[in-house]
Amino acid sequence: MHQKLQAVVDTMDIYQATFPEDACIVVTDTEQVVGYMPGKKVDLKISLGMKVESFKGTVTVKALHSKMPVRDEKGPEQFGFAYISTAKPIFDGSQFLGVVSAIISNEKMDAMRQLAEELSSAVEEMSATNAELTKASSDVSNRLEGLVQSAETMNGDIQQINHIVGLVKDIASKSKILGLNASIEAARSGEHGRGFAVVANEIQKMAQGSTDSANKIATQLENIRESIQSVTETSTQIAAFTQQFAVSMGELDGAYANINDNAANLLNLSEVR
What CATH number does the domain containing 265 carry? Predict the structure, then answer.
């Protein structure tokens, strides 16, 4: 075995110790395995003397053929754990001697990638839900504004009706006085004013009935006005709340975007370069 290749085999334990994760080291010449050091979990069950060509598709064979460094990442499908493999050609000057390969556990990075993907997916769902809530909040706010405007219109109508009721009361009051005066004149006329007295009495009854009805209408209108006022105040409060809710949703959108960016950065960092 070439002296430099032997030196690499003799220092495999040092190479292995430089990796932060569990790793195994494989050293080959141009034809076969000349050195192998398994990790605690990363153990490919390689034996000394195994032909390099039996590792078809691996970074070791690719580096052997290209005489260039090769790096690759694999999932847990083959060995039950995710790993990153790196192969580097060994030269003595211009003479190609073989390849040293490191197979490093990538479980932690793989788990981080999966978490980042799940986080990104969850944030997308939350953002979609947030958008729906924001739209719903905006719709509620618009409808409440319409309700408040309708209430204001109704208040205006009530004021007009109150004005008409006031006119009815005024007419009823004048009619009552007119009926009272007519009764007095009928009494003065004696027998000749008896028929006129009946008419005067009916006028007074009609005037009193109109006054009573107008008072009842005024009372009901006041009750309606108070109810409308209560609805208006409540609607205004809810509208203010929904507007604040929409602002909060906007702030959440910003937070979600930030989380999504961080998740994307995690995914980017976890990719093998």
Answer: 1.10.287.950
